[in-house]
Every structure is written in structure tokens, then in C-alpha cells.
Amino acid sequence: MQELLAGxxxxxxxxxxxxxxxxxxxxxxxxxQMKAHQALVAGLKRGDTVVMSSGMIGKVTRVxxxxxxxxxxxxxxxxxxxxxxxxxxxxTAIAANDTKTIAKS
Length: 105
Fold this sequence. Notes:
Blueprint: H1 2-6, H2 8-42, E1 49-52, E2 57-63, E3 67-73, E4 76-81, E5 85-90
Antiparallel strand pairs: 1-2, 1-5, 2-3, 3-4
């Protein structure tokens, strides 16, 4: 048994569990988090209250392919890359400049 662990195969036996541990502790959670963020960005719509990576909070007024227009103050709209939106806080609120009302069912 000692001869088996002393050679190159023995070194491999110790590296395989470390690689498996790295996968389950680092890589897999990162992939899950990335998929969740992509779903969040894909589900972005007008009226959502969002938090951007800079810490600014605003309301989405327009959504395009890769960008969104976010109102950060009354009459102040900024164009941001959708990937920089980190959190959607309120999906039911009306955009600040939207004159339509939500019909209650």
C-alpha cells in the first residue's frame, strides 16, 4: 500500500478530492448565481424599481436589448447597461412618468 501512495498515482489520489471540492464550493455556486442574475436581467420590465451596481436606486422607464433607461430622480433619466443592475426591488410599482394606472383584477 505504501508503494502505491508513494508514486505519481498517490499524488493524483490527493488532488482529485481537492478538485471536486473546488467544483462544489466555488465553481458551481458561481454558475448558479450567474444564471439567477441573467434571469433577473432578462425579466426586467418597465416600472421595476432597481438597484444598480453603483448603489443608485431608480425606476425602469424603458427596456432595450442591452440597455435600460432608469429614472433616478424626477425628470432625470440615465441609460445603463442591463448587466449593471444588481437587484430588482419592486416589480409592481408604476414608473414615475407613467400616466396609466394598473387595473386591479
